[in-house]
Structure formats: C-alpha cells, structure tokens
Fold this protein.
Amino acid sequence: MKILVSGATGFLAESLLPRLKGDIRVVDRNEGKLIKLKQKYPDIEIITGDISQEWIVKKAMKGIDEVYHLAAMKHVDLAEKQPFECIQSNVIGTLNLLVESLNERPKTFIMISTDKAAQVNGVYGATKFLGEKLIKEAEMINQETKYRVVRYGNVWKSTGSFITKWIPNIKKGEGIKITDPDMTRFFWTVDEAVDLIFECIAKAKDSTPYIPRMKAMRMGDIVIALKEMYGDFKVETIGNRGGENQSETMDGILFSDNVERYSIKEIMELI
C-alpha cells in the first residue's frame, strides 16, 4: 500500500503518521520540518513543495493507493487577511490533488474539513466548503476511488491555537486577549480526531461529510479553568475579529451553544 499524506508536518499528521501502515510519501512546503520528519521516520519519502503547484502534485500522487489530505491554511484571522493564500492552499491545492486522483485512481481519498464549512462566515470556511463540493464532483466522475470527507471542530492544543498562546502569556504575567467569553466552540483531542479518520474510511458510504458528535466549550469557561490553575490574570475582550461565528455547527442542526459542554474540571484536565 502506497500512502500519500499532504500537510505532513502539521499537528494532526504528527499523530496520524505512526498509525499508517504501508509505504508512506509525504508532501509539505516546510522544508525544515520535513527534514526533521525524515530523521524521525527514515523510511518515508519526502517531497518539498506546495500542493497549489501542479508539478509537485503530479510527482506526489504518482502510484498512490491512499491519500490523506491534511494540508490547509486554517487560521481564521490569517485567512481573512490573506485570502489569496488560503484559496491557493485550500481550494487550488485540493483541486490539483483531485485532478490527479482521476488519473491515478487511488483506492481512498480522504480530506479533513471543518465545522466552519457548515456555516460559512469567512474565507477559511468558504474554502473548505468549496473543497467539500470539489470532492463530491470528483466522486461523480471517478467511482473507482472512495472519496471521503471528515468534518469536525477544533483540535485541542493544535499548532497556533489560542490555548498554546494563552498559557505562555499567563506564565509571563502578560494576560490574554479573548474575542468573546460567550463564544462556544467544538473541541476534542488529537487522538479522537485521528480515530475519526479511520472510522470514516470504515463506515462512511460516500463523500457526504462524516460528522461526529462533539462536546463544546464556552470560551469564558476556559478562562475560568486557567484561573483555577494559574491564579488571576488580566483578560482583555477584543470582540469578533471577522470571519468568526458566535457558535459553530457541524450540520446546521446541532450548534456548539446547545450541545453537551466540557465542565471546568474536564477543561482543567485537558490543559
């Protein structure tokens, strides 16, 4: 089995790679992290480049049996400021991989999507929404490949997430900035996220987004948990930065403000 992982130096791939079985090829534009990845996993094949470039994708997809498409520009505020880059990565990059899948006909092609594609209110969500639609169209063209989509919320402590910034700031006595204490978000651990990828491959019938039942957190509750652990600190409320929803939804039916929430104790355990 020959496996391709895009976005292989990202937070999710770090937990996915050890669980894959086969000859693994990875593609990512972060050269330094790819070299470190090769040192950790000497048997993998690394390709440096951006999936928005057709040449790179043709090379990466050659002879592949399974595709795990993790690559994405996913930070909401950056996507709002740099929509071109977000479109290049999340739409053009996805399209390039799908076009090559029509030629290579891998057994499986799975893309990681987001709850923000279910309630588009910004560039990031819009690009993932389009990515899901491209997957659906590819499925109509090529029925030899199992096209699958996993849609979920925030992965706790993923690279660049707010909690990875807040804790160092609190420890330095600098305080934190929060958009709105009453905002709610779906969360789960990286292990749960990887589990869902394999569950989707095993159980999903088509490219309709495979959606888990997730618990949510109120942003203000995270602040309360942090104060329980680190003592009092300054909190500045800055409001919506643009492209953000007050609550998220997986499917337009269940929203993060009306599902089961993590307790303060559970949040503290995750921290």
The chain is about 40% helix and 20% strand.
